[in-house]
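Design a sequence for this backbone.
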């Protein structure tokens, strides 16, 4: 495996020799200073499309960059072959990790839903499941959430988070880092929106309950709608928290 920490320290040393700050180097090659910091601390590697520009600015070869040191002419050919093999292995490992992340997320969400379903069964048996299903409450909750996301300008980033999660290998490291940061914020906003939407729906239900309080037959159903809305909001928020945690790994 390519030693990311060694390569990162090498980038930092050459950058300092050139008298460049992280921001200046970032501007030279068209990336963010966060990307430079990520490389230099060994938490990531430059994308292959960026390596030629980075090496040109630092006045080193790609072989030097992957080796984490300046190579002599005698070592160059041998290291070139070794680095090529290691780079292929690294790309394969990244693809495997991406697949594992997708599988882990899907399995986590399925297990969460299954756990909630099992709690429902234990609480009241199979016949009780129908009491936890209220499509109008769920539709109202999701409708308010989507309206607020659209009005606030986070609609695209919110839904792009799912694309980043399941198709991360379609993006370069730099693109993934920048887009995932924005999408993570949109997911955080979505969680808050979901909880506030649940509060709004529950308050509407409470007003209707008070209006019909003289009719005892309506008290139970109205309370159930209020509680189910809160339950749906909690379940949606838990699922979004799983997605947020996965997105955070792309730029942490």
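Sequence:
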């Amino acid at each position: 495996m390519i030693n990311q920490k060694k390569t990162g320290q090498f980038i930092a040393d050459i950058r300092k020799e050139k008298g460049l700050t992280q921001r200046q180097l970032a501007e030279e090659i068209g990336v963010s200073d966060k990307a430079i910091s990520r490389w230099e601390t060994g938490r990531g590697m430059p994308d292959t499309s960026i390596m030629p520009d980075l090496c040109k600015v630092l006045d080193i070869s790609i072989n030097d960059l992957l080796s984490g040191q300046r190579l002599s002419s005698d070592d160059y050919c041998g290291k070139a072959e070794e680095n090529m093999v290691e780079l292929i292995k690294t790309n394969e490992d990244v693809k495997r990790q991406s697949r594992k992340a997708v599988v882990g997320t899907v399995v986590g969400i399925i297990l969460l839903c299954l756990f909630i379903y099992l709690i429902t069964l234990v609480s009241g048996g199979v016949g009780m499941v129908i009491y936890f299903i209220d499509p109008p409450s769920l539709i109202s909750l999701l409708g308010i959430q989507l309206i607020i996301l659209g009005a606030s300008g986070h609609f695209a980033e919110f839904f792009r988070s799912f694309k980043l999660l399941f198709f991360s290998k379609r993006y370069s490291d730099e693109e993934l880092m920048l887009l995932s940061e924005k999408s993570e914020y949109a997911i955080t906003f979505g969680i808050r929106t979901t909880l506030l939407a649940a509060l709004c729906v529950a308050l509407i239900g409470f007003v209707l309950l008070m209006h019909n309080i003289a009719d005892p037959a309506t008290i139970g159903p109205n309370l159930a709608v209020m509680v189910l809305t809160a339950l749906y909001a909690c379940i949606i928020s838990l699922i979004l928290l799983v997605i947020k945690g996965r997105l955070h790994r792309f730029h942490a």
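The longest helix spans residues 73-124.
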